[in-house]
Amino acid sequence: MDRIAVHAITAALCITSSTLTPAAEREWRWRVFENEDRVSLTISQTDLGTDDFGPTVFSCKVGSGRIEVERRMDEHEREAVAELIRKDQYPKIELLPPTPNDVSLVQPSFSELQGWQYKFDIAVHSAAFDEFGRTGIFQVKIGTAVIQNELKAGLENVRKFQDGCRHPR
């Protein structure tokens, strides 16, 4: 079973203690889901378990210092990955803004449930993820294609997620 499907099932099984009103409950926003030793951050309309979430899932093992990024590919992203393969280029993800010494590779996969997707990992303290926490914009570059996620609702949960992923001091 692919990791995005596992995250969907995990989110569906999570029990959260939420005091949101029904109107806020139906708002697409960044939400944190916690399950045993893992934490996930994704766009969803509810704090309750669901399989209805956005195309990007950030997850980590608590205290690991690394974030796993998984994303369903749209046509633009499929073309970017295909172009790397056609040109036999190194399948590197470039974080925007760049984070020195944090190199990650595009790892494409296919699932009948989710279609084409890819994953990569980044440091929890990367400039790109810190910028995302401030602005709601997460950007990477695959080959010449810039991929951008943008949503400001729920940004307070980005810090909560990031704190869960950091190495204990």
Features:
six-stranded antiparallel sheet, 169 residues, 27% helix, four-stranded antiparallel sheet, 10 strands, globular, alpha+beta, single chain, 5 helices
DSSP helical segment count: 5
Report on the biggest sheet: 6 strands, antiparallel
Strand content: 35-45%
Give the strand order, joined by hyphens, for the main sheet.
1-2-3-4-8-7
Proportion of helical residues: 25-40%
Distance from first to last alpha carbon: 34 Å
Structural class: alpha+beta
- How many E-type strands? 10
- Principal-axis shape equals globular
Q: What is the residue-mean pLDDT, rounded to a whole number?
A: 81
Spans where pLDDT lies below 50 across 5 or more residues:
5-23
Gyration radius, rounded: 16 Å
Strand-and-helix sequence, N→C?
Answer: HHEEEEHEEEEHEEH
Describe this structure in words.
- The chain is α+β, with helices and mostly antiparallel strands.
- Strand 3 and strand 4 form a beta hairpin.
- The radius of gyration is 16 Å and the shape is globular.
- It has one domain.
How is the secondary structure organized here?
Blueprint: H1 3-13, H2 22-25, E1 29-35, E2 38-44, E3 53-61, E4 66-72, H3 75-86, E5 92-96, E6 104-105, E7 107-111, E8 115-123, H4 127-135, E9 137-142, E10 145-150, H5 156-165
Antiparallel strand pairs: 1-2, 2-3, 3-4, 4-8, 5-6, 5-9, 7-8, 9-10
